[in-house]
Amino acid sequence: MRRYAVVLFAIFALGLFAREVTFRYTPNISADRVNLAGSFNGWSTDATPMSDDDEDGTWEITLDLPDGEYQYKFVVNGDVWITDPNNPKGAPDGFGGQNSVITVGDWEKFVAESFRGDGEIMTGAIWHEQAIPYLCDDGYGNLWIRIRVKKEDVQEVRLEYKDFQLGRKELPMAYLASEHPFEWFETSIPAGKKTEYTFKIIDGETSFKFPEEQIYALSASDAPKFITPQWARGILFYQIFPERFANGDTSNDPENVVPWGSVPEYDNFMGGDLQGVIDHLDHLKDLSVGAIYFNPIFEAGSNHKYDTHDYMEIDDNFGDTDLFIELDKKTEEAGIKIVLDGVFNHIGYGSHIFQDVVEKGDNSKYSDWFFVHSYPVRGPENPNYEAWWGFGSLPKMDTYNPEVRKYLFKAIRKWQEHGADGWRLDVAPDVPHEFWKAFRDTIRAIDPQAYSVGEIWGDGSPWLGGDEFDAVMNYRFRDASIEFFANSNIKPSDFLDRLGGYLADYAQPVNEVKLNLLGSHDTPRFLTIAKGEVWRSRLAMIWLLTWPGSPCIYYGDEIGMEGGKDPGCRRAFPWGEDDKWDRELFKTVRYISGLRQKNQSLMLGSARPLLIDDANDVLVVERRYGDEISVVAVNLSNTVQSVSVELLVENDFAPADTRPIPKSSLGRATEVFSGERIYDPSPLEFEIPAQDAMIFIMK
């Protein structure tokens, strides 16, 4: 009975603050299926299917949405994106077109100006639900609880809870993030067998209990679980494109190898291999790297290896299974984890599996592994089968097929048993959710601490419910960093607003392990985008290494490598060519990555703005983990700027941090680059040079 009551309340709470919204669409093309994709579901093309139950040609779906503004499109047959012809309101979609826009409830009241301390609380903006990301059990004894309020509207939020083992308690909730027009608070409590809780929201002399007349009740089995690997929390990743990182064994070079450092082309080879990685592990240790993310290393025909021929074998131009085992041994000795690229949406045209279908047609035992429209098979130039983005060299596999799963999971087991610690999942949205759920069960059965990160270029929420991925590649962080650091197209307030929204999208266990990046094998190099202005790359690197999450450096970015879009971004690492290394940039990256290891606040701390100065392009953030505090400041202007900030207290940009802290934690501030010490950082006053950064550690 008690569990039944909890479920009833969760439904009541959601219905109280959400509104039913019906979307309808009548396609003007033949439609086998129609899905609704939008900002409310991470733009997933399969998370929100519409239906045409009466077969009148009009597809519809009704959703419960909290008050707010949302963008959306209809997706016909999985790949045709169409705006709502009956909704004239739109916004740019970033690709030269428009998204449809819908406002739910009284949106204007949310965007109206508000003031902390005036005693007025906009209760309609308050939101909490017993679901991820507002509630989750992290599997390590912590229950994370989050609440949303209107931005700059309240001074403090406190959680009042009753643990039936520990009794009643009240504790301050920490500021998590803000994204106009909301901000979020979060805290964790011990995950008990049964918990009851409410929120006390305080502004000026006003105190508001939420919910007003009910309580949130929860048993241990009801709390949604999201367990991410402990080892991945805040760890520094380093991405290696094996064919271009280092050539450690010329005997396994391809026959048509070109000299190391040649101009990269789509189809040329330079001889990089796993032995080259082993030979340069000292470079990674020097950077305090904790994990390597490898682009594909399995047998394939191309230099990028995304056209897998055999998942069970290492590409013979990279090495073999024995060498991989040696690599695992060496990286384990160095304290470095291995994350492999899992390409499970498609296989290579040259694979013996697909070639069997080419030769035998529908008599092949593998014919139902693929989506062949007719026989004989044509390709790869003019394929008559489904392929990734129509590239005939990459036939799409049917991952619903039990035999396909059995084959892929067998390969996964082999490489995890040989030492792989996790997987990066290629083109994740193109693979059904059901497969990823089975994938997670498989890798966690082999290793409960196995890590998974999906290639998602937007909001990854549909895959981050605790039963698929641990994290996503945070390309949104990259996009915001390019606009702010590389191009100076947005102001500090816009930049922090974006980053705050990304934190609010995901549960805390995700935020600790999400893969923040400035570039990858699929993007132009950051320094190239910044037009070679190294100071911009330096500041972006510092921010990457000091923002919540697990930063990832694309090989060579630490020394200032340049390159345009693929294949330009896949140049050979210039080992032994000192004139191609930016030593000052490298020293900075090495120093800050090492500093993170010694200061938990820079790895795992919360982030609270102390100063957002749009007029002078200055941004200052306070990071706190327990009793540790650090301050990160960047100045993008071309003049020295004077800064004066107060730690922990309320300011114009964030509420006070009211969590208890010993006075000794605020006794002295040391600037990490200059070594300057400020013995009374109340306020913390300093001058930050033009186009530079400063970091203070409080002791």
Your description of this structure?
With 699 residues, the chain is an alpha+beta fold. The protein has 5 domains: 14-105, Sandwich (Immunoglobulin-like), CATH 2.60.40; 123-219, Immunoglobulin-like; 235-345 and 401-598, TIM Barrel (Alpha-Beta Barrel), CATH 3.20.20.80; 346-398, Oligo-1,6-glucosidase, domain 2 (Alpha-Beta Complex), CATH 3.90.400.10; 606-698, Golgi alpha-mannosidase II (Immunoglobulin-like, Sandwich). Helix content is 22%, strand content 28%. The protein has 16 helices and 34 strands. The strands form 8 sheets. It has an 8-stranded parallel beta barrel. The protein has a 6-stranded antiparallel beta sheet with strand order 27-28-29-34-31-32. Strand 8 (135-137) and strand 9 (142-150) form a beta hairpin. It is globular and about 80 Å long. Residues 1-16 have low confidence and may be disordered.
By CATH, the topology of the largest domain is TIM Barrel
Whole-angstrom Rg: 26 Å
**Low-confidence regions:** 1-16
Strand order of the largest sheet: 17-18-21-22-23-24-25-26
In CATH's first tier, which class of the largest domain applies? Alpha Beta
- The shape, in one word, is globular
Going by helix content, strand content and strand pairing, the class is alpha+beta
- Total discrete domains: 5
Ends apart, CA distance between termini: 51 Å
Q: Count the DSSP helices.
A: 16
Percent of residues in helices comes to 10-25%
- Classified in CATH, the superfamily of the largest domain is Glycosidases
pLDDT averaged residue by residue: 94
Beta-strand share of residues: 25-35%
The CATH architecture classification of the largest domain is Alpha-Beta Barrel
